[in-house]
Design brief:
Two copies of one chain form a homodimer. By secondary structure, chain A is α/β, with parallel strands linked by helices. The first copy, chain A, has one domain (2-223): Class I glutamine amidotransferase (GATase) domain (Rossmann fold, 3-Layer(aba) Sandwich), CATH 3.40.50. Chain A is built from seven helices and eleven strands. The relative contact order of chain A is 0.15.
Chain lengths: 228, 228
């Protein structure tokens, strides 16, 4: 079973590596990091680079595709070769999936029209101009499209995918192996539990990037024929 | 503030990337991936490679050092240049830290003698031959040494470190930004919550690697003068 994880410049590394750590432990799975242009892809923090070894054209029939997010997703949403590949592989994938703002890339490929989907809390509104129905939930499944919420949700998301692929017992073994027994020292991980001050600060910090996301989502949505 | 994350061949990527995703968001922090031999380091799944850009000798005074684990930690425990660097930087670090079986590497450098520390649940017993006092806890602090439990604990660990470095409010903002509001679909993440069958299966799978760990920990422990 081929699982393709898409990489692009300026991605959020954990969006890709959380799912990798789970899905690479599914018996029989081969995880391949793919990109329109193979090579090293920098994470948004800058200090980390992940290797995309395989060009998109070399992996045309993965059973599962995972699209991570991160600031570079804005450029990925306008990259025709990435969007064309997503549309093509989606015809034969068992599961087409995303983590964080990766769902906006799926949306830009036209794969979320009329579908329920989720995204990072700060960017979830941009699903609508792409024709999707935003759902504030950790993991959302609609048909064979599975979307996960922001960054760290990729682990919850991938355990759910592992259970779908190989059954709950396999997913439980992976959970134990990666000791995923979360115990966050604070309770600020969602917009419901964070204080108003924390929420305002983080929202403010993400505002310029979010403005770009809005523009691109609306422009791409018009191209897809979604009423804006 | 320089934060050095050690990489080596055959590491568990999430051990390094979980903390990276948190610590790279600490204001003023610069995260650098270092290795005895710079270059691409493969994760144990094989499909992922992370770039270690900086040789150890070029980063001699990081404020924080993070050592991840993974199967390759067995070789790292016997790599004299890595151990010498850890001993040297530990003299001036504010915090010397590890995730997962990275604590066995700190132990092999002689930095855990008489100290309370944790490790991946399957390998925690190997701390004792290295002179450490094993503690089954998600994050353990003793002096300026902080150790985290297995793989996914690196996120809990790093949020605790972020709070120590820059205060709880900063850590809470990072938690919200990476949407770390965990919601595991199953409850098998620890030896207490996993079924006896799941535990036996995973323990069995890890047994050959654990035998290597035992041998190396005992051999290195003798060299460190720890009674075996």
């Amino acid at each position: 079973m081929d699982i393709a994880i898409l990489l692009f410049e300026n991605l959020t590394a954990l969006d890709a590596v959380g799912p990798y750590e789970v899905l690479s432990r599914v018996p029989g799975a081969r995880v391949t990091f793919v990109a329109a242009e193979p090579g090293l892809k920098r994470s948004n923090g800058g200090g980390l680079a992940l290797l995309a070894e395989t060009p998109l054209i070399e992996l045309s029939r993965p059973e599962v595709v995972v699209v991570p997010g991160g600031p570079g997703q804005v450029e990925a949403m306008a990259d025709e070769s990435t969007l064309a590949w997503l549309r093509q592989v989606h015809e034969t994938t068992q599961w087409t999936t995303s983590v964080c703002t990766g769902s906006l890339v799926l949306g830009a490929a036209g794969l979320l029209k009329g579908k329920r989907a989720t995204c990072h809390w700060a960017a979830i509104e941009h699903l609508r101009p792409l024709g999707a129905i935003p759902v504030s939930q950790r993991v959302v499944m609609d048909g064979n499209v599975i979307t996960g919420a922001g960054v760290a949700s990729g682990i919850d998301f991938a355990l759910a995918v592992a259970a779908i692929l190989e059954g709950e017992e396999v997913a439980r073994q992976i959970q134990l192996q990666i000791e995923y027994d979360p115990s966050p020292p604070f309770d600020s991980g969602s917009t419901e539990t964070a204080s108003a001050e924390t929420l305002a600060l983080v929202r403010g910090r993400l505002a310029p990037l979010n403005e770009q996301r809005r523009e691109v989502a609306e422009r791409v949505g018009r191209k897809l024929g979604v009423p804006q």
